[in-house]
Structure formats: C-alpha cells, structure tokens
Amino acid sequence: MAASKHAAAVGPVEITVPSYQGAYPKTATRFIRLGPDQVNDTPVDEEEEVFILEALAAYAPSAVAEEDDSPLAGHTLGLGRLTPRILRRAHAVDQVAGKGVTGRLLWLVREAHGYLRHEKTAAAVRSEICKALTATGARAVIAHSLGSVVFYDMLSRGEVPTERDGKVRVTTFITCGSPLSWLCVREGVHTPGAPLSVPPGVEWTNLHSPNDVVNRGVGLSHLAIGVTDVVAHNGGVAKAHDVHRYLAHEAVVERIAKVRPL
C-alpha cells in the first residue's frame, strides 16, 4: 500500500494477523510446515484417509484410473505416516498433474480436514479470528488459502461482529488462493447444491493464480453469487500460492484503498 499510488490518499493502514496455529493438533503435517516443536507425529486414521483420498480424486479425477493397485504399491514410496492407499493416489496425481503437486497439496488437505471434520478445532479457530475482529473493529479481511474457508464459514454462521443495525461490520472480503472450488472443502461450510454467497453489503473479491495448485488455477465466479474474480499471475507452481505475491497485486491495494473507517 505504501508503495502504491493510493498511499497519500489512504494514509497508514493497520494490519492485524491473527494466528490460529495453536488451535490445531501437532500433526506430522505441521512438522513439515512449521518445524519440530509443532509435531507429535499423529498418524492418519481411517476417516481422515477417506477425506484425503476424496480430495485428491477431486483435484485430478483422471488420476484414480492410473493408480497402481498391486499389493505392494504404496508401501515403498516414503512420506512417513501416510497410508499406502494415500501414497498410491498421491503418486497417481503426480503422474497426471505434475511431479511434486501432491506434496504441495497434502498439508492443505490435512489442515482442511482438521477444520471441517473436528468441530472443537474449528470453533477454536473461529474464536481467534472473532477476537481479532472485535478488538480491532476491522472492516476489511484478506483471507489466504484455508483462511478463506474459515472466514466464509464465519459469515455463513453469523459469527462475524455486526453493527447496531445488524449488518456485518466487515465490508471488504478478499480471498487469495482459495480452495473453496473443491467440493470436499465447499460442502463443509455451506448448503450442498446452493451457490456460495456472502451477506449484503460485503464486497467479495477473489484472486486466483493460473499455476496455484490450491485453487486449481480457477476462480469462484462459476460457484458464487456476487464475487469478482481477479487473475493474479504469481509465476510458476513453486511461487503461485505464495501469500506475498497475492498481497502485492494491484487489486488488493485498490480494494483496501476503498475501505473507510467507521
């Protein structure tokens, strides 16, 4: 914002970054992302295995037919605590979508499972966000990756702070690299078969990158009412989901510049 043409007109912008890291169990996936002090090496159970298999199948449907169903397949592929069935599907997805794709997806899929299928964890996550919104009086929310699912869920549940007239205080909702295009994620936070939508008075902008494996390179306008899709050319697969590249996009600056304090 400071480097943009809007800097003089807008002035200083205060940003609060609430963390819900502590709400999650210390799984092996978090070890991969956050370091050894964040892990207790919790294995994948049967219910989570089914969720992961469905998520990977939704990402690359044609990969399912390519799986190696031989007895030993998946037992020698590595990746720690993941099951042979997951490893077989992950390998098949990589064969179809590109080498290393599932390595970039699995942390998101496991964290999405933790939010969507464990209400205690989900409630703790939403509580942290709500506390920050209440304390700051924020009128704009930028939600990256799984954060877009969390805040959309809060809007749907009516858990976002409101004004005296009952309207949601947040007027600007910006999603970046959102996985809401996945049915397995979407069905956990809204009514199946209905389009995605936000309350009246909330302007929703969704940024998606063509090479972002999390949003599968597509926007949300075909699934949502009142959302404006913006293509963010963030570079190759390695950087396409990077939050800094999304935040640097002019569309984010323009939306934030329009927000006015109460």
Features:
AB_hydrolase_fold, Serine peptidase, 41% helix, 262 residues, 11 helices, 2 domains
What's the short story on this structure?
With 262 residues, this protein is an alpha/beta fold.
Mean pLDDT comes to 85
Gyration radius, rounded: 19 Å
- N- and C-termini, Cα separation: 20 Å
The percentage of residues in β strands lies in: 5-15%
Question: Could you say how many structural domains there are in total?
Answer: 2
Widest sheet, order of strands: 1-2-3-4
Question: Would you mind describing this structure in some detail?
Answer:
It comes from Streptomyces ardesiacus. This is Serine peptidase. InterPro entries: AB_hydrolase_fold. It is a single chain. By secondary structure, the protein is an alpha/beta fold. It has helices at residues 7-10, 28-34, 46-59, 84-97, 101-116, 119-136, 146-157, 183-186, 237-240, 243-247, 250-258; strands at residues 140-144, 172-176, 203-208, 227-231. Strands 1-2-3-4 form a 4-stranded parallel sheet, with helices on both faces. The chain is globular, with a radius of gyration of 19 Å. The relative contact order is 0.12. Mean pLDDT is 85; it is low at 34-40.
